[in-house]
């Protein structure tokens, strides 16, 4: 449950805001951003996820000005840490409105990957997207402040 003024809360974001989501999967994309590209990628991920009929990995996605970190909700094991500078796009899908997705450049291959997550509610998917946008802004502000002198 998010407080009404959560968008004004800078403090928790510095530490990292946590969301518990289900990881649907990943697909490679050709463009770093764009609504149509993301929608198509999410459709592919969701279609593949439905076919698989396996249990989805429950993850704790933490958003901070440093980026996104993924932790297995059951084992607490770190799955991935994505620098804010490698993330080029994030969205809540218009049709699958409980799906949050982001596009990031893979550290290993340099390929653009779209990762999709299922949230329990539409509001949560939107909150993750807004929080990532806010983290981008904070990272930019911090970067500019560091380079101002």
From TrEMBL:
InterPro entries: Adapter_Engulfment-Domain, PH-like_dom_sf, PTB/PI_dom. It comes from the Eukaryota. Residues 16-141 form the PID domain. SMART domains: PTB. PROSITE patterns: PID. This is ARH protein.
